[in-house]
Design brief:
Length: 367
């Protein structure tokens, strides 16, 4: 029997693409869900024009526990691709009570803490919950594991992201989640065998190569980085760095957003609009999103440098494709009871192979 996948936020930029890739690569039956039934039906009709029996539509509000619980009846997997971290307790409870597996692409410390508190119940119910899916979060740990798979012993693994999305991207409510990241910004990296303090930025020049060149980058912590030193005891250094794209955004817009968060902490929407304006207005080519890992270690007794990069012109594609690729692994037997992060659960070699098939540029270099 084909799996039934319910995509909350299925009409959004990310949700729609996850649905499209899953329709193309699996036999799952997909439900496109959002608060507006008409919009969900429109998207479902578009995605299902040549396979109408595989795409359905549903109206659900993440804030409404009863409607969500009822809608999840009989589903296999709930994919949360909506900026609904404010309702994380309601959404996860609905999945637990309906006995449905769960995957989210959201960026939120509060969401992660809620899921962690539910981990024993998730495991006891034999459900598989996958969190921190997407490209960031999602790919940093997968890239480090990919590098480790090419080395006998891994000593350093720096991950970094270049993001220049262009000027014509429609505003997304998901920017409010970005504001929450700024509010509780964690800049930790693992350096000389220990974690640096959360409030202390690390700056680094990183050579992306090609037309991106070398960029000044600032550190940013993702939960998926935390288990890496335990997983790879030889690892002395790891972390994630975000490349700056324009001096005005880096030197004026971002500091102003931090300041406004202190002075008017409730102005989330306005600060979100400011961040979006800064991130889109001043962007310069090359327009694409690229994530890299630069690792060092040993292989066959030799000092070895390993580098891998994944890139796509469309940042939403680079969010949706790893999610769809991880779901393919889940559908084919990777499902394990408990709470997992995508970057730690998915087999990285298979993940990057499938991502390439779905249109992501993947490059690896070993020296
Ligand atoms: N991990 C990563 O790498 C990564 C990268 C980028 C984005 N993200 C995350 O991806 C998520 C989606 O972002 P996006 O830009 O694709 O969003 P988007 O285009 O703004 O779409 C949002 C979707 O959620 C639905 N929605 C909003 N509130 C809802 C509610 N209360 N109940 C049910 N549905 C609701 C919307 O439909 P209605 O308005 O009709 O309800 C729409 O379908 C966000 O959480 C964002 O932070 C993750």
């Amino acid at each position: 029997m084909p799996a039934k996948i319910f995509i909350l936020g299925g009409t959004g930029q990310t949700g729609r693409l996850i649905a499209r890739h899953l329709l193309e690569r699996s036999d799952a039956i997909i439900t496109i869900a959002s608060r507006r039934l008409e919009r969900a039906e429109e998207v479902a009709a578009d995605l299902g024009h040549d396979r109408p029996d595989r795409v359905k539509a549903a109206a659900v509000d993440a804030a409404d526990a009863a409607s969500l619980r009822a809608a999840l009846e009989g589903q296999t997997l709930l994919v949360v691709a909506a900026p609904t971290t404010a309702h994380v307790a309601t959404v996860t409870r609905a999945a637990l009570d309906a006995g449905v597996d769960y995957l989210d692409v959201q960026i939120s410390a509060k969401k992660f803490a809620t899921l962690k508190s539910l981990a024993p119940e998730i495991e006891a119910k034999g459900l598989c919950f996958i969190t921190e899916a997407g490209f960031h979060p999602g790919l940093p740990a997968a890239l480090v594991r990919f590098a480790a798979a090419h080395l006998d012993s891994i000593e350093t693994a720096t991950t970094a992201c270049y993001l220049s999305i262009g000027r014509d991207i429609p505003f997304s409510d998901a920017v409010e989640e970005l504001v929450e990241i700024f509010r509780s910004y964690n800049a930790q990296v693992f350096k000389n065998g220990r974690w640096t303090p959360p409030g202390v930025y690390q700056m680094r020049k990183i050579a992306f190569g090609g037309d991106i060149g070398t960029r000044s980058c600032y550190s940013m912590f993702f939960e998926e980085l935390r288990p890496l030193p335990d997983r790879f005891p030889s690892l002395r250094e790891t972390g994630f760095f975000m490349a700056g794209t324009h001096w005005f955004t880096d030197a004026v817009v971002f500091p102003l957003a931090f300041l406004l968060l202190k002075i008017v902490p409730k102005a989330t929407r306005t600060i979100g609009r400011l961040l979006w304006w800064g991130m889109t207005r001043f962007q310069k080519p090359p327009y694409r999103t690229e994530l890299i890992v630069q690792a060092s270690g040993t292989h066959a007794g030799q000092k070895t440098q390993f580098e891998a990069a994944v890139a796509h012109r469309d940042a939403y594609e680079l969010t949706a494709i790893p999610v769809a690729a991880a779901i393919l692994q889940y559908l084919e037997g990777l499902r394990r009871p408990g709470l997992h992060m995508m970057g730690h659960l998915a087999d990285p070699r298979r993940l990057f192979t499938d991502m390439k098939r779905m249109g992501v540029k993947v490059r690896t270099t070993v020296e």
